[in-house]
Design a protein that fits this description.
The complex is a heterodimer of chains A (55) and B (773). In chain A, 58% of the residues lie in helices and 0% in strands. Chain A has 55 residues and is mainly α. Chain A starts with a helix and ends in a 15-residue tail after the last helix. Chain B is elongated, with a radius of gyration of 32 Å. The longest helix of chain B is centred in the last third of the chain and has 36 residues, at 677-712. Chain B is an alpha+beta fold. The chains are: A mainly alpha (55), B alpha+beta (773). The interface between A and B is medium-sized, with 24 and 26 residues.
Chain lengths: 55, 773
């Protein structure tokens, strides 16, 4: 069962990465305005005037 | 524009426009820029967000502008050298989003930091739970098959490695609160929780090092995860309520115009006004602070302070209070602190007396915790002694006693009430009721008598047209257009009644008298009956017919002047709401500071038999004490400064959003909008919530009745503990969620902030909106 000696630490590392990601997103204020964030995704302000993809 | 005023006894200038003191509204950024937060009206959708950000970013000197759609705020960072924020406000006004700056001194951001802290703990506990569970399930299945002791020990050590730091971090909110309670020599719900978690962890560590079969790391972490979830939701709800309340307060744009030593006028947040300062109150404005009139004369509407609807004349030397509405004259007010003997000092004394009397009432959750802890701890002690008595060795007896404590760790009990509170508070938030006190729901559910204040609570805060001495549609339309230029509350009411949208040109304000304009060479006047030369007998007749109304006159230079009577109208849904409450079995009473005739009229119109008029704050408290002595649980609904002590004294209290500051602070809940319906909704939701709290407590008791014998007999394995503890938490949480299905229309239909007209400047706009819909 020595495979466990590799697999369990790998599983824990992946879990820690997830936790770090969560704490980073919390720290960078991504949960401050959940309503607004949902709508920003579909705005095309970042496209130039006259861009054909702009609705 | 500033006006030079002499230092001694400055005469107030009615039409002066003060400059806003922006340094008092914004915060410095490290790079020399300044950060400003604005509350914005009419943000309803995602498109508004784009409009506002595009408009602001286009302005020279703006470094960044970001809308927070959930909170309806905009954060702007700008360069003070290149730009005055007045430009930003004008720009937003022009595209249809009037904005008001937040007062940084009045901001309370503590709730937000606490919610973040809990969210971090929740993330850590979630990570720990999932990873420890991964290994626990292997051990559980291995224990009934062929796991080797080495593999089990490996899993236990890895679990300990993950669990110990996670518990040490995520458990802090509970450990801290429990330690504080013990230092105070009392017990709260966090004490048994902390004991349970620490014992489960300690036993698991011991088993890990002794090579035992069982470890409870997963139970301890799962318990933490569920409890943190409940606590985070609770804190988040509280934060949202606080944010909403702060936004509403800012939209009332409560600022004061301070007269500087050099006579310059500056608009500053109320928090920056100190006793001794001179403040200018322009016609039609709400008095921002308490003080003594230094110069100027005017009529003043004291309804928010005393409940009296008829305006009163004030002159130099007389006291005016925050929340009173100024009439046609401009006043210079010398700010006073709450001095002994003034109305405000008296009100504050009564409030603190009432609050100290109520401090004895204990919350349901704390009562449950206090009954629970001794029972559970003695059960564990008895288990230990019992196993010793039947001949078990002491370490085995101790392990079983600890298992009893772990399994009875009040997970379900700790969630039973907060879970319902969170759902109920969210439900009330959507109906436009903001809770000030956490246990307001429990107290609302116990109510059997409702006492209403009249002015501003049953009636609309602003006056409506009730009668005219002569009806002339053309004259009324012209008067309405003239009235648009005045900020006087009666003029606002007249403009609304006339449906006027276009102002007249060349309107001049005549301090203390009214407004006048030249149209086709004729002078049109709007103002006091004397200003428009209304004959005394016409005034007398109108006063006799409408004793509660305020009078305003219009003269158009041709025919005889027209006299209009405006009175506060009963809220549109008041009769319906009171009937609904009476049908639900509540006893209803009106308790007002207004005159007998005015109160009797309202009571008759609403079909309320019990009413008392001309009650001062002490009389109101006395009446509530009589009701309490009869064994009644009273809900007081009021808005005035004079209601504040009785709001604090009542079993539970509510205040409309248009209420005086002090009243809102004393009330347990604030309801938004122009209607009375939220009061009935709040009572319905509270009763349903109380029922669910009872059910949840019963579920927690049933869980313990089943689980404790299993633990006492020594059959608690980690698997049983995990199933029992998470199962009971899930059941009480799901039961709480049923509250969402309680009927009642959501209050928030369109722009919630626009539906709460509270400053005279906003009344006109919101009034027209209301009539159109």
């Amino acid at each position: 069962m020595s495979i466990l000696l590799y697999l369990v630490p790998i599983a824990l590392t992946l879990g820690l990465l997830g936790l770090a990601g969560f704490l980073w997103s919390l720290k960078s204020g991504q949960y401050e305005d959940l309503e607004g964030a949902a709508w920003r995704a579909i705005q095309d302000d970042d496209l130039a005037e006259g861009d054909p993809r702009r609705g | 524009m500033t006006a030079a005023l002499p230092l001694a006894g400055p005469e107030p200038v009615a039409d002066a426009v003060p400059a806003r003191d922006w340094s008092a509204y914004s915060l410095a950024e490290p790079d020399g820029r300044r950060r400003l937060t604005l509350a914005v009206e009419n943000i309803t959708c995602a498109a508004c967000m784009g409009d506002i950000e595009r408009a602001l970013r286009g302005v020279e000197g703006v470094a960044s502008a970001r809308v927070n759609l959930a909170d309806r705020r905009v954060a702007v960072v700008y360069d003070p050298a290149a730009l005055s924020p007045d430009v930003l406000l004008a720009r937003l006004q022009a595209i249809g989003y009037p904005a008001h700056p937040f007062d940084p001194a009045a901001r309370r951001d503590g709730g937000s930091a606490e919610a973040r802290r809990l969210l971090k703990s929740l993330g850590v506990a979630g990570f720990g739970t999932m990873n420890v569970m991964l290994m626990s399930i292997s051990v559980w299945s291995g224990n009934v098959t062929d796991i080797t002791p080495e593999t089990r020990d490996f899993f236990h050590f890895m679990s300990a490695l993950v669990a110990l730091p996670c518990i040490a971090y995520a458990g802090q909110p509970f450990f801290g609160s429990a330690a504080a309670a013990i230092r105070r020599r009392s017990v709260n719900m966090d004490v048994p929780i902390s004991i349970g978690i620490l014992l489960a962890t300690g036993l698991s560590v011991a088993n890990t090092f002794l090579g035992g079969h069982e470890a409870y790391f997963d139970s301890a972490l799962m318990l933490l995860f569920f409890l943190l979830l409940g606590r985070f939701l609770d804190e988040n709800m509280r934060r949202r309520t606080a944010v909403e309340a702060e936004t509403l307060a800012t939209l009332r744009s409560e600022s004061a115009v301070r007269i500087g030593a050099d006579g310059a006028l500056a608009e500053v947040p109320v928090s920056r006004v100190a006793p001794g300062d001179l403040v200018l109150v322009r016609p039609g404005e709400r008095v921002p602070v308490d003080g003594r009139v230094a110069a100027g004369t005017s009529e003043i509407d004291r309804s928010l302070v005393t409940g009296e609807t008829a305006p009163v004349a004030v002159g130099p030397g007389e006291m005016v209070h925050a929340g009173m509405i100024n009439g046609f004259g401009a006043l210079t007010v010398s700010v006073t602190a709450a001095v002994e003997g003034t109305l405000v000092a008296e009100i504050e004394r009564l409030i603190s007396e009432a609050q100290s009397m109520k401090a004895g009432a204990m919350r349901l959750a704390d009562r449950a915790a206090r009954a629970y802890a001794p029972v559970v701890h003695s059960a564990a002690a008895l288990t230990f002694l019992g196993w010793m008595a039947v001949g078990a060795d002491w370490s085995h007896a101790l392990v079983i006693a600890i298992a009893v404590l772990i399994i009875t760790c009040p997970c379900a009990l700790a969630l039973a009430i907060p879970a319902v509170q969170v759902v109920a508070a969210g439900r009330l938030f959507r109906s436009g009721v903001l809770l000030n006190a956490g246990d307001a729901i429990e107290r609302l559910a116990a109510v059997d008598t409702i006492v209403f204040d009249k002015t501003g609570t049953l009636t609309t805060p602003e006056p409506r047209l009730v009668a005219s001495s002569r009806f002339d549609a053309g004259a009324l339309a012209l008067a309405g257009r003239l009235a648009l230029s005045s900020r006087h509350p009666l003029a606002r009411g007249l403009a609304r009644a006339a449906g006027a949208v276009e102002t007249l040109e060349g309107v001049r304000e005549r301090p203390g008298e009214g407004v006048a304009a030249l149209v086709d060479g004729r002078e049109i006047r709007l103002g006091s009956p004397a200003f428009c030369a209304v004959p005394a007998e016409v005034v007398e007749r109108m006063r006799a017919a409408h004793p509660t109304a305020s009078l305003i006159a219009v003269a158009d230079g041709r025919g005889e002047p027209v006299l209009h009577a405006l009175a506060q109208a009963i809220k549109t849904d008041a009769a319906e709401t009171l009937a609904r409450l009476a049908a639900a079995g509540y006893r209803i009473e009106i308790l007002s500071g207004d005159r007998q005739a005015a109160v009797a009229e309202t009571a008759a119109a609403l079909g309320v038999a019990e009413f008392r008029a001309e009650a001062d704050p002490q009389a109101k408290i006395a009446r509530l004490e009589v009701l309490a002595a009869e064994g009644r649980r009273v809900l007081m609904v009021g808005d005035g400064l004079n209601d504040a002590p009785s709001l604090a004294a009542a079993h539970v209290s509510m205040s409309p959003v248009s209420a005086a500051h002090v009243a809102q602070a004393a009330a347990d809940a604030v309801f938004l909008g122009e209607r009375l319906g939220p009061v009935a909704t709040a009572l319905e939701v509270a009763r349903a919530a109380r029922r669910l709290m009872g059910q949840n407590l019963a579920i927690a008791v049933v869980y313990n009745v089943i689980a404790v014998p299993i633990a006492v007999l020594g059959y608690v394995t980690p698997l049983v503990a995990a199933l029992a503890m998470s199962g009971s938490s899930l059941i009480v949480t799901l039961n709480a969620v049923r509250l969402r299905r309680i009927a009642g229309e959501p209050w928030r239909t369109a722009a919630p902030v626009a539906a709460a007209p509270t400053s005279p400047a906003m009344l006109g706009a919101a009034g027209t909106l209301r009539e159109q819909t």
